[in-house]
Amino acid sequence: MSIKTEEMVLNMGPQHPSTHGVFRLKLHVNGETITKAEPVMGYLHRGSEKLAENFIYTQFIPYTDRLDYLNAMTNNYIYCAGVEKLLDWEIPERAEYLRVITMELNRIASHLVWWGTYLLDIGALSPFLYAFRDRDICLDRLNEISGARMTFNYMRIGGVKWDAPDGWIEKVKESVKELRENIAEYDRLVTGNEIFRARTIGVGKLTKDQVINWGLSGPIARGSGVNVDLRKTEPYSIYDRFDFDVPTREEGDVFARYKVRIAEMHESLKIIEQACEQIPSEGDIIHKKGARIMMIKPPAGEAYTRAEASKGEIGVYVVSNAKTKPYRVKLRRPSFVNVSILQDMLVGENIQNLVAIFGSLDVVLGEVDA
Amino acid sequence: MFRLLKGFGITLNYFRKRKVTIQYPEEKVAMPERFRGIHRFFPDKCIVCDLCVKVCPTDVITLTGKKSEENPKKKIIDTYNIDFQGCILCDFCTEVCPTDAIVMTARYDNLSSFNRSTHFKDIEWLTNNHAYGYYEESEPAPEAGRRGEVK
User: Fold this and answer.
1) Cβ A147–B34 below 8 Å, yes or no?
2) Touching check for A194 and chain B: CB below 8 Å?
3) According to a count of CB atoms within 10 Å of the terminal CB, is the N or C end of chain A lower?
4) Which residues form the NADH-quinone oxidoreductase subunit D domain (chain A) (predicted)?
5) Which residues does B contribute to its contact with A (CB < 8 Å)?
6) Least CB–CB distance from B148: residue in A162, A194, A286
Protein backbone atom coordinates (compact mmCIF):
# COMPACT_ATOMS: atom_id res chain seq x y z
CA MET A 1 0.00 0.00 0.00
CA SER A 2 1.35 3.36 -0.90
CA ILE A 3 0.85 6.40 1.24
CA LYS A 4 0.04 9.65 -0.46
CA THR A 5 2.57 12.31 0.55
CA GLU A 6 2.74 15.93 -0.39
CA GLU A 7 5.11 18.79 0.03
CA MET A 8 4.48 21.04 2.97
CA VAL A 9 5.34 24.72 3.26
CA LEU A 10 6.71 25.64 6.65
CA ASN A 11 7.51 29.14 7.81
CA MET A 12 10.46 29.50 10.11
CA GLY A 13 10.30 32.95 11.61
CA PRO A 14 9.99 35.94 11.44
CA GLN A 15 9.89 35.47 15.20
CA HIS A 16 12.14 32.53 15.87
CA PRO A 17 14.68 32.39 18.67
CA SER A 18 17.48 30.93 16.61
CA THR A 19 17.36 33.55 13.88
CA HIS A 20 18.56 36.21 16.37
CA GLY A 21 16.35 38.83 14.87
CA VAL A 22 13.50 39.01 12.46
CA PHE A 23 14.24 36.70 9.59
CA ARG A 24 11.84 34.42 7.80
CA LEU A 25 12.72 31.24 6.04
CA LYS A 26 10.07 29.70 3.79
CA LEU A 27 10.76 26.00 3.77
CA HIS A 28 9.28 23.40 1.46
CA VAL A 29 9.63 20.10 3.22
CA ASN A 30 9.07 16.58 2.08
CA GLY A 31 8.84 14.61 5.26
CA GLU A 32 11.88 15.82 7.10
CA THR A 33 13.92 16.71 4.04
CA ILE A 34 14.06 20.28 2.84
CA THR A 35 13.35 20.52 -0.87
CA LYS A 36 13.42 24.30 -1.20
CA ALA A 37 14.37 27.14 1.09
CA GLU A 38 13.57 30.74 0.45
CA PRO A 39 14.96 33.44 2.74
CA VAL A 40 12.60 36.38 3.22
CA MET A 41 14.29 39.44 4.59
CA GLY A 42 13.54 43.08 5.12
CA TYR A 43 11.68 43.02 8.41
CA LEU A 44 14.36 45.20 9.97
CA HIS A 45 14.86 47.45 6.97
CA ARG A 46 15.55 51.03 7.99
CA GLY A 47 16.85 52.43 4.74
CA SER A 48 20.30 53.26 6.08
CA GLU A 49 21.73 53.94 2.65
CA LYS A 50 19.01 56.42 1.82
CA LEU A 51 19.25 58.05 5.25
CA ALA A 52 22.92 58.73 4.63
CA GLU A 53 22.05 61.02 1.75
CA ASN A 54 20.27 63.39 4.11
CA PHE A 55 23.00 63.50 6.73
CA ILE A 56 26.22 65.42 6.91
CA TYR A 57 29.13 63.00 6.70
CA THR A 58 29.71 62.58 10.44
CA GLN A 59 26.06 62.15 11.30
CA PHE A 60 25.93 58.81 9.54
CA ILE A 61 28.51 57.22 11.88
CA PRO A 62 26.00 56.24 14.62
CA TYR A 63 23.90 54.60 11.93
CA THR A 64 26.76 52.36 10.90
CA ASP A 65 26.79 51.16 14.52
CA ARG A 66 23.36 49.79 13.94
CA LEU A 67 24.17 47.68 10.91
CA ASP A 68 26.08 44.86 12.53
CA TYR A 69 25.52 45.90 16.09
CA LEU A 70 27.73 43.14 17.47
CA ASN A 71 30.75 44.41 15.60
CA ALA A 72 30.11 48.13 15.38
CA MET A 73 33.74 49.27 15.48
CA THR A 74 34.61 47.86 12.09
CA ASN A 75 31.49 49.42 10.61
CA ASN A 76 32.53 52.75 12.08
CA TYR A 77 35.99 52.28 10.70
CA ILE A 78 35.05 51.34 7.19
CA TYR A 79 32.70 54.27 6.71
CA CYS A 80 35.28 56.71 8.06
CA ALA A 81 37.98 55.12 5.93
CA GLY A 82 35.80 55.56 2.85
CA VAL A 83 35.35 59.27 3.46
CA GLU A 84 39.03 59.66 4.39
CA LYS A 85 39.96 58.13 1.07
CA LEU A 86 37.88 60.79 -0.67
CA LEU A 87 39.46 63.51 1.43
CA ASP A 88 42.94 62.03 1.06
CA TRP A 89 43.74 62.59 4.71
CA GLU A 90 46.55 61.06 6.65
CA ILE A 91 45.45 59.54 9.96
CA PRO A 92 47.63 60.14 13.04
CA GLU A 93 49.64 57.17 14.21
CA ARG A 94 48.07 56.92 17.65
CA ALA A 95 44.58 57.03 16.19
CA GLU A 96 45.38 54.11 13.90
CA TYR A 97 46.56 52.03 16.84
CA LEU A 98 43.51 52.90 18.90
CA ARG A 99 41.36 51.93 15.94
CA VAL A 100 43.05 48.57 15.59
CA ILE A 101 42.85 47.78 19.32
CA THR A 102 39.17 48.64 19.52
CA MET A 103 38.33 46.82 16.30
CA GLU A 104 40.04 43.64 17.42
CA LEU A 105 38.47 43.79 20.89
CA ASN A 106 35.16 44.12 19.19
CA ARG A 107 35.89 41.20 16.87
CA ILE A 108 36.49 39.02 19.92
CA ALA A 109 33.26 40.23 21.51
CA SER A 110 31.40 39.44 18.30
CA HIS A 111 32.85 35.96 18.00
CA LEU A 112 32.06 35.32 21.64
CA VAL A 113 28.42 36.17 21.08
CA TRP A 114 28.43 33.77 18.17
CA TRP A 115 30.09 31.07 20.22
CA GLY A 116 27.62 31.42 23.08
CA THR A 117 24.45 31.71 21.08
CA TYR A 118 25.38 29.04 18.59
CA LEU A 119 25.86 26.49 21.33
CA LEU A 120 22.63 27.71 22.87
CA ASP A 121 20.90 27.09 19.54
CA ILE A 122 22.09 23.54 19.35
CA GLY A 123 21.17 22.85 22.93
CA ALA A 124 24.02 23.69 25.30
CA LEU A 125 23.03 26.30 27.83
CA SER A 126 26.06 26.97 29.99
CA PRO A 127 28.60 28.01 27.28
CA PHE A 128 26.41 31.04 26.73
CA LEU A 129 27.14 32.20 30.26
CA TYR A 130 30.88 31.69 29.85
CA ALA A 131 30.83 33.60 26.58
CA PHE A 132 28.93 36.55 27.97
CA ARG A 133 31.17 36.75 31.00
CA ASP A 134 34.17 37.12 28.70
CA ARG A 135 32.35 39.39 26.30
CA ASP A 136 31.72 41.70 29.21
CA ILE A 137 35.46 42.10 29.67
CA CYS A 138 35.73 43.32 26.07
CA LEU A 139 32.68 45.53 26.39
CA ASP A 140 33.93 47.09 29.62
CA ARG A 141 37.14 48.12 27.91
CA LEU A 142 35.21 49.52 24.95
CA ASN A 143 32.79 51.25 27.29
CA GLU A 144 35.65 52.97 29.07
CA ILE A 145 37.08 54.35 25.85
CA SER A 146 33.96 55.11 23.84
CA GLY A 147 31.18 55.59 26.38
CA ALA A 148 28.85 52.90 25.10
CA ARG A 149 28.68 49.17 25.28
CA MET A 150 27.42 48.38 21.80
CA THR A 151 26.72 51.42 19.67
CA PHE A 152 30.13 52.96 20.12
CA ASN A 153 30.10 55.88 17.69
CA TYR A 154 33.81 56.11 18.48
CA MET A 155 35.55 56.71 15.17
CA ARG A 156 35.50 60.05 13.50
CA ILE A 157 36.43 61.02 10.00
CA GLY A 158 40.16 61.62 10.35
CA GLY A 159 40.78 59.75 13.56
CA VAL A 160 38.98 58.77 16.73
CA LYS A 161 36.79 60.72 19.09
CA TRP A 162 38.58 60.29 22.40
CA ASP A 163 42.05 59.38 23.44
CA ALA A 164 42.46 56.35 25.66
CA PRO A 165 41.80 57.19 29.31
CA ASP A 166 44.67 56.89 31.81
CA GLY A 167 45.78 53.34 32.32
CA TRP A 168 43.49 51.99 29.62
CA ILE A 169 46.26 50.34 27.61
CA GLU A 170 47.46 48.52 30.74
CA LYS A 171 43.94 47.37 31.45
CA VAL A 172 43.67 46.03 27.91
CA LYS A 173 46.92 44.12 28.34
CA GLU A 174 45.53 42.50 31.48
CA SER A 175 42.25 41.72 29.75
CA VAL A 176 44.15 40.01 26.94
CA LYS A 177 45.79 37.68 29.44
CA GLU A 178 42.49 36.92 31.09
CA LEU A 179 40.72 36.35 27.79
CA ARG A 180 43.47 34.09 26.52
CA GLU A 181 43.07 31.79 29.49
CA ASN A 182 39.30 31.83 29.28
CA ILE A 183 39.14 31.15 25.55
CA ALA A 184 41.60 28.29 25.92
CA GLU A 185 39.19 26.89 28.46
CA TYR A 186 36.44 26.76 25.84
CA ASP A 187 38.34 24.06 24.00
CA ARG A 188 38.27 21.86 27.05
CA LEU A 189 34.68 22.73 27.81
CA VAL A 190 33.05 22.28 24.43
CA THR A 191 35.30 21.49 21.47
CA GLY A 192 36.10 17.98 22.57
CA ASN A 193 32.61 17.19 23.74
CA GLU A 194 31.36 14.05 21.99
CA ILE A 195 27.78 15.27 21.67
CA PHE A 196 28.90 18.53 20.13
CA ARG A 197 31.21 16.78 17.69
CA ALA A 198 28.51 14.36 16.62
CA ARG A 199 26.20 17.29 16.03
CA THR A 200 28.59 19.37 13.96
CA ILE A 201 31.22 17.28 12.14
CA GLY A 202 30.15 16.69 8.55
CA VAL A 203 27.04 18.87 8.86
CA GLY A 204 26.36 21.73 6.51
CA LYS A 205 29.24 21.21 4.13
CA LEU A 206 30.21 24.03 1.83
CA THR A 207 32.61 23.42 -1.02
CA LYS A 208 35.26 25.85 -2.13
CA ASP A 209 33.38 26.42 -5.41
CA GLN A 210 30.17 27.27 -3.61
CA VAL A 211 31.97 29.78 -1.42
CA ILE A 212 33.55 31.50 -4.40
CA ASN A 213 30.45 31.42 -6.58
CA TRP A 214 28.22 32.90 -3.90
CA GLY A 215 30.80 35.50 -2.90
CA LEU A 216 30.96 34.41 0.72
CA SER A 217 33.60 35.81 2.99
CA GLY A 218 34.82 35.74 6.53
CA PRO A 219 35.06 32.62 8.71
CA ILE A 220 32.63 30.79 6.41
CA ALA A 221 35.02 31.10 3.48
CA ARG A 222 38.04 30.29 5.62
CA GLY A 223 36.29 27.25 7.02
CA SER A 224 36.01 25.91 3.46
CA GLY A 225 39.66 26.39 2.61
CA VAL A 226 39.43 29.77 0.88
CA ASN A 227 42.31 31.68 2.34
CA VAL A 228 40.94 35.19 2.22
CA ASP A 229 41.41 37.72 4.98
CA LEU A 230 41.65 41.33 3.96
CA ARG A 231 43.83 42.09 6.96
CA LYS A 232 46.44 39.90 5.32
CA THR A 233 45.73 39.95 1.61
CA GLU A 234 45.05 43.66 1.31
CA PRO A 235 46.27 45.24 4.55
CA TYR A 236 44.27 48.32 5.45
CA SER A 237 44.92 50.65 8.38
CA ILE A 238 48.17 49.37 9.95
CA TYR A 239 47.55 45.63 9.85
CA ASP A 240 50.75 45.05 7.89
CA ARG A 241 52.74 45.84 11.04
CA PHE A 242 51.43 42.92 13.04
CA ASP A 243 52.40 39.32 13.02
CA PHE A 244 49.38 37.05 12.93
CA ASP A 245 48.11 34.02 11.06
CA VAL A 246 44.94 33.49 9.11
CA PRO A 247 43.37 30.27 10.37
CA THR A 248 41.85 28.17 7.60
CA ARG A 249 40.30 24.72 7.55
CA GLU A 250 39.65 22.48 4.58
CA GLU A 251 36.58 20.55 5.76
CA GLY A 252 33.94 23.21 5.12
CA ASP A 253 31.51 21.89 7.69
CA VAL A 254 30.02 23.52 10.76
CA PHE A 255 32.82 22.26 12.96
CA ALA A 256 35.44 23.81 10.68
CA ARG A 257 33.76 27.20 10.97
CA TYR A 258 33.66 26.77 14.71
CA LYS A 259 37.37 26.02 14.86
CA VAL A 260 38.20 28.94 12.58
CA ARG A 261 36.38 31.38 14.83
CA ILE A 262 38.01 30.06 17.99
CA ALA A 263 41.42 30.33 16.34
CA GLU A 264 40.59 33.82 15.10
CA MET A 265 39.93 35.01 18.63
CA HIS A 266 43.43 33.91 19.60
CA GLU A 267 44.87 35.73 16.58
CA SER A 268 42.98 38.89 17.52
CA LEU A 269 44.44 38.68 21.01
CA LYS A 270 47.87 38.47 19.43
CA ILE A 271 47.20 41.61 17.39
CA ILE A 272 45.92 43.53 20.43
CA GLU A 273 48.98 42.54 22.42
CA GLN A 274 51.34 43.75 19.68
CA ALA A 275 49.38 46.96 19.17
CA CYS A 276 49.51 47.72 22.90
CA GLU A 277 53.29 47.33 22.77
CA GLN A 278 53.78 49.44 19.66
CA ILE A 279 51.33 52.27 20.32
CA PRO A 280 53.05 55.67 20.59
CA SER A 281 52.60 57.04 24.08
CA GLU A 282 51.28 60.36 22.86
CA GLY A 283 50.29 62.16 19.73
CA ASP A 284 47.31 63.48 17.85
CA ILE A 285 44.26 61.32 17.69
CA ILE A 286 42.42 63.10 14.92
CA HIS A 287 43.37 64.90 11.72
CA LYS A 288 43.59 68.63 12.32
CA LYS A 289 40.54 69.33 10.18
CA GLY A 290 38.58 66.34 11.45
CA ALA A 291 37.55 67.80 14.79
CA ARG A 292 35.20 70.30 13.17
CA ILE A 293 32.57 67.78 12.30
CA MET A 294 30.14 70.20 10.67
CA MET A 295 32.69 71.35 8.10
CA ILE A 296 33.76 68.13 6.41
CA LYS A 297 33.35 68.52 2.67
CA PRO A 298 35.16 65.98 0.47
CA PRO A 299 35.94 66.88 -3.14
CA ALA A 300 33.73 65.38 -5.83
CA GLY A 301 34.57 61.80 -6.55
CA GLU A 302 33.94 58.28 -5.44
CA ALA A 303 35.74 55.79 -3.26
CA TYR A 304 35.34 52.17 -2.32
CA THR A 305 37.00 50.75 0.75
CA ARG A 306 36.72 47.33 2.26
CA ALA A 307 37.73 45.71 5.48
CA GLU A 308 37.47 42.42 7.29
CA ALA A 309 34.60 42.50 9.75
CA SER A 310 33.89 39.60 12.05
CA LYS A 311 31.22 38.35 9.64
CA GLY A 312 33.17 38.81 6.45
CA GLU A 313 34.16 41.47 4.00
CA ILE A 314 32.46 44.78 4.63
CA GLY A 315 32.66 47.50 2.03
CA VAL A 316 31.53 51.06 1.67
CA TYR A 317 31.15 52.95 -1.56
CA VAL A 318 30.85 56.69 -1.10
CA VAL A 319 30.05 59.14 -3.87
CA SER A 320 30.56 62.80 -3.16
CA ASN A 321 29.45 65.80 -5.14
CA ALA A 322 31.51 68.29 -3.13
CA LYS A 323 28.73 69.13 -0.70
CA THR A 324 28.50 68.53 3.03
CA LYS A 325 26.22 65.53 2.46
CA PRO A 326 27.15 62.38 0.56
CA TYR A 327 25.53 61.88 -2.82
CA ARG A 328 25.30 58.13 -2.37
CA VAL A 329 26.48 55.60 0.17
CA LYS A 330 26.41 51.94 -0.73
CA LEU A 331 27.12 49.38 1.93
CA ARG A 332 28.36 45.92 1.15
CA ARG A 333 27.15 44.00 4.18
CA PRO A 334 28.76 40.58 4.64
CA SER A 335 25.79 39.02 6.44
CA PHE A 336 23.48 39.88 3.57
CA VAL A 337 25.72 38.06 1.12
CA ASN A 338 26.36 35.17 3.46
CA VAL A 339 22.72 34.53 4.22
CA SER A 340 21.93 34.05 0.53
CA ILE A 341 23.79 30.74 0.53
CA LEU A 342 20.94 29.24 2.56
CA GLN A 343 18.76 28.66 -0.49
CA ASP A 344 21.49 26.56 -2.07
CA MET A 345 22.87 24.94 1.01
CA LEU A 346 19.73 23.79 2.77
CA VAL A 347 18.30 21.77 -0.12
CA GLY A 348 18.47 18.10 0.74
CA GLU A 349 19.32 18.73 4.38
CA ASN A 350 17.35 17.43 7.31
CA ILE A 351 15.11 19.87 9.07
CA GLN A 352 16.89 18.96 12.33
CA ASN A 353 20.14 20.28 10.93
CA LEU A 354 18.63 23.56 9.85
CA VAL A 355 19.31 25.48 13.05
CA ALA A 356 22.82 24.05 13.34
CA ILE A 357 23.60 25.23 9.80
CA PHE A 358 21.90 28.58 9.97
CA GLY A 359 23.54 29.39 13.28
CA SER A 360 26.97 28.56 11.95
CA LEU A 361 26.70 31.33 9.34
CA ASP A 362 26.75 33.95 12.13
CA VAL A 363 24.22 36.25 10.57
CA VAL A 364 23.19 39.50 12.20
CA LEU A 365 19.85 40.70 10.97
CA GLY A 366 20.59 44.37 11.47
CA GLU A 367 23.17 43.96 8.79
CA VAL A 368 21.10 41.78 6.47
CA ASP A 369 18.31 44.33 6.24
CA ALA A 370 20.32 47.52 6.80
CA MET B 1 32.95 10.10 26.98
CA PHE B 2 36.18 11.21 28.58
CA ARG B 3 35.96 14.65 26.98
CA LEU B 4 32.43 15.06 28.24
CA LEU B 5 33.60 14.51 31.81
CA LYS B 6 36.47 16.92 31.25
CA GLY B 7 33.91 19.56 30.41
CA PHE B 8 32.01 18.81 33.59
CA GLY B 9 35.27 19.16 35.49
CA ILE B 10 35.57 22.76 34.32
CA THR B 11 32.03 23.49 35.40
CA LEU B 12 32.69 22.02 38.85
CA ASN B 13 35.87 24.05 39.12
CA TYR B 14 33.80 27.21 39.07
CA PHE B 15 32.31 26.42 42.46
CA ARG B 16 35.44 27.69 44.10
CA LYS B 17 35.83 30.81 41.97
CA ARG B 18 34.35 34.19 42.68
CA LYS B 19 30.90 35.06 41.40
CA VAL B 20 30.52 37.41 38.46
CA THR B 21 26.78 37.93 38.59
CA ILE B 22 25.50 41.36 39.55
CA GLN B 23 22.09 41.35 41.22
CA TYR B 24 20.86 44.12 38.98
CA PRO B 25 18.01 46.08 40.51
CA GLU B 26 19.61 45.99 43.97
CA GLU B 27 23.20 46.31 42.83
CA LYS B 28 23.93 48.64 39.96
CA VAL B 29 26.82 48.70 37.58
CA ALA B 30 28.79 51.90 37.86
CA MET B 31 29.37 53.19 34.38
CA PRO B 32 32.68 54.83 33.47
CA GLU B 33 33.04 58.56 33.33
CA ARG B 34 32.63 58.79 29.58
CA PHE B 35 29.43 56.81 29.54
CA ARG B 36 26.86 58.30 27.23
CA GLY B 37 23.81 58.22 29.45
CA ILE B 38 20.77 60.45 29.76
CA HIS B 39 21.47 64.11 29.18
CA ARG B 40 21.77 66.89 31.67
CA PHE B 41 21.28 70.50 30.73
CA PHE B 42 22.76 73.67 32.24
CA PRO B 43 20.51 76.61 31.28
CA ASP B 44 22.91 79.32 32.47
CA LYS B 45 25.69 78.06 30.23
CA CYS B 46 23.58 77.86 27.07
CA ILE B 47 24.15 80.57 24.48
CA VAL B 48 21.31 79.47 22.16
CA CYS B 49 23.63 78.77 19.25
CA ASP B 50 21.37 76.04 17.82
CA LEU B 51 24.32 73.77 16.99
CA CYS B 52 22.93 70.78 18.90
CA VAL B 53 19.70 71.03 16.95
CA LYS B 54 21.59 71.12 13.66
CA VAL B 55 23.87 68.20 14.44
CA CYS B 56 21.23 65.89 15.90
CA PRO B 57 20.81 63.02 13.42
CA THR B 58 17.34 62.14 14.63
CA ASP B 59 15.99 65.69 15.05
CA VAL B 60 14.80 65.19 18.61
CA ILE B 61 16.08 68.45 20.11
CA THR B 62 13.94 71.56 19.95
CA LEU B 63 14.81 74.82 21.61
CA THR B 64 13.75 78.42 21.73
CA GLY B 65 15.57 81.41 23.12
CA LYS B 66 14.56 84.82 24.34
CA LYS B 67 16.31 88.13 24.85
CA SER B 68 18.10 88.51 28.15
CA GLU B 69 16.61 91.16 30.41
CA GLU B 70 19.92 92.35 31.82
CA ASN B 71 21.79 92.48 28.54
CA PRO B 72 19.55 92.90 25.50
CA LYS B 73 22.32 91.81 23.16
CA LYS B 74 22.50 88.38 24.74
CA LYS B 75 20.08 85.54 24.23
CA ILE B 76 19.12 83.12 26.93
CA ILE B 77 17.42 79.79 26.68
CA ASP B 78 13.68 79.66 27.07
CA THR B 79 12.62 76.11 26.27
CA TYR B 80 14.76 73.08 25.61
CA ASN B 81 13.24 69.70 24.88
CA ILE B 82 14.59 66.29 24.01
CA ASP B 83 12.24 63.63 22.78
CA PHE B 84 13.81 60.44 24.11
CA GLN B 85 11.61 58.29 21.90
CA GLY B 86 13.98 59.07 19.08
CA CYS B 87 17.22 59.93 20.83
CA ILE B 88 19.99 57.47 19.97
CA LEU B 89 22.41 58.84 22.61
CA CYS B 90 25.02 59.45 19.95
CA ASP B 91 26.70 62.28 21.88
CA PHE B 92 26.95 64.68 18.93
CA CYS B 93 25.03 67.37 20.82
CA THR B 94 27.59 67.42 23.62
CA GLU B 95 30.41 67.16 21.13
CA VAL B 96 29.48 70.33 19.25
CA CYS B 97 28.30 72.34 22.26
CA PRO B 98 30.82 75.20 22.62
CA THR B 99 29.98 75.87 26.29
CA ASP B 100 29.25 72.35 27.54
CA ALA B 101 25.71 73.37 28.37
CA ILE B 102 24.42 69.95 27.41
CA VAL B 103 26.33 67.01 28.84
CA MET B 104 25.70 63.33 29.21
CA THR B 105 25.44 61.73 32.62
CA ALA B 106 26.40 58.20 33.55
CA ARG B 107 22.80 57.45 34.30
CA TYR B 108 20.93 54.83 32.31
CA ASP B 109 17.87 53.80 34.28
CA ASN B 110 15.54 56.76 34.62
CA LEU B 111 13.79 56.74 31.27
CA SER B 112 11.57 53.70 31.37
CA SER B 113 7.92 54.50 31.84
CA PHE B 114 4.49 53.24 30.97
CA ASN B 115 3.62 56.08 28.69
CA ARG B 116 5.18 57.29 25.46
CA SER B 117 4.43 60.92 26.07
CA THR B 118 6.56 60.88 29.23
CA HIS B 119 9.62 60.38 27.07
CA PHE B 120 9.35 63.97 26.01
CA LYS B 121 11.64 65.73 28.48
CA ASP B 122 11.63 69.46 29.00
CA ILE B 123 14.21 71.89 30.30
CA GLU B 124 13.19 71.42 33.92
CA TRP B 125 13.64 67.66 33.86
CA LEU B 126 16.92 67.90 32.00
CA THR B 127 18.27 70.51 34.41
CA ASN B 128 17.36 68.42 37.42
CA ASN B 129 18.81 65.22 36.01
CA HIS B 130 21.63 65.13 38.54
CA ALA B 131 24.01 62.27 39.13
CA TYR B 132 26.76 63.48 36.93
CA GLY B 133 29.31 60.79 36.33
CA TYR B 134 28.32 58.80 39.39
CA TYR B 135 25.43 56.66 40.12
CA GLU B 136 24.22 57.98 43.47
CA GLU B 137 22.51 61.27 43.80
CA SER B 138 24.80 63.49 45.82
CA GLU B 139 24.06 66.83 47.44
CA PRO B 140 24.92 69.36 46.26
CA ALA B 141 24.90 68.20 42.66
CA PRO B 142 28.49 67.67 41.53
CA GLU B 143 29.97 70.18 39.17
CA ALA B 144 30.20 69.05 35.60
CA GLY B 145 33.71 69.00 34.27
CA ARG B 146 34.74 68.39 30.74
CA ARG B 147 34.49 64.71 30.03
CA GLY B 148 37.35 63.32 28.01
CA GLU B 149 39.76 65.81 26.59
CA VAL B 150 39.19 66.03 22.92
CA LYS B 151 36.50 67.76 21.07
Assistant:
1) yes
2) yes
3) N
4) 121-369
5) 1, 3-4, 6-7, 10-11, 20, 31-36, 51, 54-55, 57, 88-92, 95-96, 104, 148-151
6) A162
Residue B107 known to bind ligand: no
For residue A286, the chain B residues in CB contact (below 8 A) are: 150
At A108 the pLDDT is: 92
Cβ neighbours of residue B5 under 8 Å, at least 6 residues apart? none
Query: What is the CB neighbour count within 10 angstroms for residue A276?
Result: 18
**Nearby residues of A69 by Cβ (< 8 Å), 6 or more positions away:** A150, A151, A364, A366
Q: Could you state, in chain order, the average pLDDT of each consecutive group of 10 residues for chain A (370 residues)?
A: 83 79 87 88 87 89 88 90 89 90 91 90 87 90 88 88 88 90 86 85 88 90 89 88 89 90 91 90 84 83 90 91 89 89 87 87 84
Say what the ipTM of the complex is. Answer: 0.80
- Give the largest CA-CA distance in chain A: 82
Give the separation between CA A264 and CA A245, rounded to whole angstroms. 9
3-state SS string over chain A?
CCCCCCCEEEEECCEEHHHCEECEEEEEEECCEEEEEEEECCCCCCCHHHHHCCCCHHHHHHHHHCCCCCCHHHHHHHHHHHHHHHHCCCCCHHHHHHHHHHHHHHHHHHHHHHHHHHHHHCCCCHHHHHHHHHHHHHHHHHHHHHCCCCCCCCEECCEECCCCCCCHHHHHHHHHHHHHHHHHHHHHHHHCCHHHHHHHCCCCCCCHHHHHHCCCCCHHHHHCCCCCCHHHHCCCCCHHHCCCCCCCCCCCCHHHHHHHHHHHHHHHHHHHHHHHHHCCCCCCCECCCCCCHHHCCCCCEEEEEEEECCCCEEEEEEEECCCCCCCEEEEECHHHHHHCCHHHHCCCCEHHHHHHHHHHCCCCHHHHHC
Residues from chain B that touch A293, judged by Cβ atoms under 8 A, are 55, 92, 95-96
Q: What's the DSSP call for residue B131?
A: -
Residues of chain B with pLDDT under 70: 131-151
d(CA B23, CA B37): 21
- Own/partner long-range contacts of B134-140 (Cβ < 8 Å, ≥24 apart): B134/B30, B134/B106, B135/B28, B135/B30, B135/B31, B135/B106, B135/B107
Chain A: give the shortest CA distance to residue B69, in Å.
32
Is residue A19 a contact partner of residue A12, using CB atoms and an 8 Å limit? yes
Side-chain half-sphere CA neighbours of A296 within 13 A: 28
Q: B97: annotated binding-site residue?
A: yes
pTM score, two decimals? 0.89
